[in-house]
Each structure stands twice: as C-alpha cells, then as structure tokens.
Amino acid sequence: MSHQSDLIASDIDAYLNEHENKDLLRFLTCGSVDDGKSTLIGRLLHDSKMIYEDQLATLEADSTTSGTTGEEVDLALLMDGLKAEREQGITIDVAYRYFSTAKRKFIIADTPGHEQYTRNMVTGASTCQLAIILVDARHGVITQTKRHSFIASLLGIRNVVVAINKMDLVDYGEARFHEICDEYREFAKDLGQIDPYFLPMSALLGDNVVDKGTNLDWFEGPTLMEHLEIVDVEAGVDIENFRMPVQMVSRPNLDFRGFAGTVASGTIRPGDAVVSLPSGVASTVDRIVTYDGDLDVAGPGRSVTITLNDEIDVSRGDVLVKAESQPLRAHDLEAMVVWMAEAELEQGREYLLQSTNGLSNAKVSAIRHRVDVNTMAEEQTGSLGLNDIAQVAISSDRELLFDAYGSNRHTGSFILVDKLSNATVAAGMIKGVASMWDRAPGATLIRQISEITDSERSIRFGQQPCTVLLTGLSSAGKSTIATALERELFDRGKVSIRLDGQNIRMGISRDLGFSAQERSENLRRVSEVARLSNNQGIMAIAALVAPNNEVRARAKELIGEERYLEVFVDTPIEVCRQRDPEGLYDAADRGDIPQFPGVSATYERPDDADLRLDTSVQSVDECVSEILRALGDRGFLRG
For residues 527-561, b (16+ Cβ closer than 10 Å) or e, as one string? Predict the structure, then answer.
C-alpha cells in the first residue's frame, strides 16, 4: 500500500514517476515465539495509515474471536493469515506485506519464530537487506535470538536492528535496555554485522515504532520507521565486479539478438568489453536495452537486455563478466548449508544443484563441521538433520561459476534439490573453492607399506631425506639456487629430486592457472611428490613462488616439520624487475597478467623461514653454502 500524496489528485503522472524512482528496502522480522514480530508489523502499518478501512474492520471483527489483546485490536492478526496460526497464536509460514512512505518503498517478510520452522526463516531472509531481530525485554538474548542472528549473518544481511520489545512490561527501564544491548554485543561481536542499531520499543502500545510516544524519553535515537527510511542498504554492494547471469536469449526478429538478465553486481556501459562464461568468448557491449529505452549505464539490481557487437554463442545459464574481474571456477567448492529436509543428508548421494549458471549433478563429499548456534562451537558430525547448519564440501559433475557469497549473494548462492521428490533440501552459501588439502582419500583405498626401512635407505644413500622449499618473488633467483644446490648434492654423492615450478606447470599442474586457489593446489601437488620422495629416502628441492603463508604452513604440515626446510629468497622487487627475462612484471603492470604476486596480488613474506637469502648481495655459491650448512646442522647430510 502506498502513502497518501497530494500529487495523486493534482498530477497523477508526477506521482507515479515519484513512486517509481523511490528505492526499495526488503527487510524481515525475526526472533523467538511471542517476541511480537507480527504485532510490530501490524503497528507499523496501522500507525503509518497503511491499512485500508475494510481491512481494519475485518481486523476488529477477528480480534473478538482470535485476538489476544483483550478489547484492543490485535494487530498481529494482520500478518498471521493461516488458520493454524490464528488458532495457536504463532507464525508458521513467511508472510509478506508491501507498503511505501514518502521516502522509500518496503517489502516486509514476517518469519516464524519456532525452531522447527527455521527453514521458512531462511527462505524469507534470502532476499532481504535488513533484519529486525526482536528481543523480549523480560527474557533478553535467548537461543532463538542467537539462531536468527547467526542465520542473518550467514545470509549476508549486514544491517541489523535489535528491537528490544515489550519495554512496557519492564517499566521502560533504561538500565534493562543497556543490559540487553551489552549481552547482544558480546554474542554478536564475531558475526560481521554493521553496528547493530539498538532500539527500545513497545509494539503493542506503539512506543518508538512510528511515533516516539511519551514513555521512552530517555532514548534519543530515531524511531524504527525513521531508521528504516534512512538506513544505507547499499553499503557493501559490489559495483566493481560485473556479473550478469543470462536468463533468456531475446530474438523478437531477425535484426535483434539480446541477452536478458538482472545485473547481479558491478556496472556495465555500451562499449565495455565483456566475456561470456564458461565459453570464454569475448565481445563488446553495443546497447543496454530496457522497456523505457536504452541506458548509458546499468548497475546492480537492474533488469536489462544487452546486445553485443559480435555474433557469439551465449545461452541461458551463461554469465556475462568483464575480462579483468572473472568469477571463480571449480568442480569442488566449500559452502555453508542450511539443511531444510526431514530426511537426513546422505553423504555421497547425488542431488541437483541449482545456481546462477544452471543445473548440475552434485553431492556433498564431506561434512567439515556442524555449527552449534547457541555457542558458535564447531561440532564434528557424519550427518545433518532438519534445520542443521554446517560447512560442507560439494563436488559437481560440471564446472561451476561463482563468487564467494560474502562478496556476491547472487552468484555465491545455490540450492540442493532431491532428484526423486523435486523438493528443495538445502540452501547453500559458497565460501570458495574447496581445498584439496582437506579432501579425504577414497574410503576403499589402503596405504601400501614398503618393506624397506628408513634406516636401510639412509645407509644406502648416505643421507636423511628432507624437503627444501625455496619461496620468493618471480625472478628472485629460486630456480638458479635450486639448480646449483642439486648439482652440489649430486657431486657429494647425495640423491635428490628438483621440483621446479615451471617444470611442474608443464606437467602435473598444467591444468592449473594462477589464482590463489590454483597456486595453493599447485603447492599441494608438489608437496605430495616431495613427501613420496622423502619416504623413498630422496631429498626434494622445490622452487616455487608459493605466496601464501597459510598454504606454506599446510605444506610443512603435510611433509612433516622434521623433514622440512623453508628458504625465503628475499630479493628486493626492484632487482627482480631488472632481471625479469620474460617481461612478466611489465605485463602485470599493464594488466595482462592478473593476480601476479608483488604487483596485482600479495606476496606474504615468511615470518618464520628457516633461512633467508638475498641474491642481490649474495652470490649463488654463497646461497648454496648457507643451505648446505643448514642441512648439515639439521643432520640431513649424514647417513
């Protein structure tokens, strides 16, 4: 329902134009049973004059038979439309209401408070930009408060109003209000919310809902309606990375071929270069077509039809992006899921995965942990039941295009669908590419044990096996040092294998690119080869950029700290640039090489490397001597 405006009578076109150009806020109310969610929405609509007279008359009549407020009109009945809801005095399904004020349009989702209807709350919250979490002033922060706050955070809702309701039942006590605020802050400090707005109110009596009232004079902040009209819901919206999933190919005649969809993030203009994924074919934007005419620019949330200057193959389920900011691509991903089915999750069972780029067959390959929403503790489990929230690993039969949910709710979400019943069994929020470091081997595999002992190998080779990881920027001198070290060890009669980053990428890692995830996987593969070599009594020398501290720590853990020597080739980047034989730094400066460590991506300097070398002041022989000294001190060069 829209607010009353003088323009309706005097200039209807001006009124419609004004109404059309207001921004839209989608918000939900959540909290425990009887915290007053439906009453709050009823009060919002009633005090804003957003209820038609016939609705009000029906409400007054229903209040005499189903109401819980005595002789007063029970405003909660405006939202609780199901017969079962009115009989029990609770909300079961998600109820939606639309209204507008002079400043903004609103869609409200009234979600259920019972734990058994958590899945309904997830459904209502999935498209919302703001959450009103009601807290009963008598009870404070309880389990459902925590559950709904966690789910709101999980679903990317960063704007939160903590509405401390029923202040009339605690004599409008300011001390009680601040006590609950402190309790909630302590619980929610790690949820990633934008400073929750705390608001004392009485939804039943109307204090601080639309009007200030006279009972909360000590509170100086805006009322709920005032806050809803001014809150910045665009905070955190991604306007840099363009994504538009194609929903339809529009071909009304032989002279027009456009690709219709809603811009999920970023902006697009005629003349911009775009890439269609997964094919990777590039073109430039010719027109941005809408019902009201062509646009010079389109941003997040805008439904448009884009025409291209080239006749390339683009189909429903493809995603248009800009070449310089492409999404992640993988068959395996890490995600948080809310299990929404009565039947338990079956690991390894095949489900349908529906995401922005279509359907695929997928299975939950591992349950990392289940979250106890009361304590935020991570629990180990082998199954998930109704309303459980967990981090899982998911494997798909085709490559998925996605972003992390935290940066893009549209391309970072999915649902799992049961193939037999066609029922939605889970809602998922993607965290990123699944780490192969954590992937368990097949249950039927059995490690084969060698009959040759470590001491026999040590006597034969005259050495103790270890892995030397040389890490540093491109052109720092890692490969040169590794080659010289290999020569020196060979001349001493030692047995080693050299795992050079470029050689690895020409063989076992030729399927990998240079994203952070792919660099991580490259080091994992090298570490597995190094470990196998060490198990055979052979020294391994690995020379890779390996820019991430956490990933290098995983390599150390996999190989074994007792067999691992990390060497940081700490050559200044200016020297690396001067040496650069392939012109990689210049290409990275031009933007031709994305995610290049030291230029367009971060190289994390090791804080705890076993050895630090600088080839700008040390010769190759000096560097090799220092490594040999370290190997000798650790006992690796003795038989």
Answer: bebbbebbeebbbbbbbbbbbbeebbebbbebbee
Q: Are 156 and 429 in contact (CB under 8 A)?
A: yes
Pairing of strands 328-339, 424-433: antiparallel
Model pTM score: 0.66
**Residue 308 DSSP class:** E
Residue 523 lies in a domain: yes
**What is the domain extent for residue 62?**
7-230
In a domain, 40, yes or no: yes
Same domain for 163 and 51?
A: yes
Q: Do 280 and 383 fall into the same domain? A: no
Domain co-membership, 467 together with 607: yes
For the segment 181-233, what is each residue's pLDDT rounded down to a tens digit?
Answer: 999 998 888 776 667 899 999 988 889 998 898 899 999 999 999 999 988 87
Helix (H) or strand (E) holding 576: helix 573-579
**One-character DSSP codes across 346-373:** -TT-EEEEEETTEEEEEEEEEEEEEEET
Q: Are residues 419 and 300 in the same domain?
A: no
**pLDDT digits 0-9 by tens, 18-45:** 556 677 888 888 877 777 777 888 788 7
346 and 249 share one domain: no
Our CA dihedral for 253, 355, 155, 602, rounded to 10 degrees, sits at -100
Q: Do 140 and 64 belong to one domain?
A: yes
Q: How many domains does the chain have?
A: 4
Q: Phi and psi (nearest 5°) for 271?
A: 95, -15
Long-range contacts of 485-489 (CB under 8 A, 24+ apart): 485/541, 485/624, 485/627, 485/628, 486/541, 488/624, 488/628, 489/539
DSSP state of 298: B
Q: Is 142 left (phi over 0), alpha (psi -120 to 50) or beta?
A: beta
What's the average model confidence in pLDDT over 166-170?
A: 93
Distance, CA of 203 to CA of 533 (rounded, Å):
70
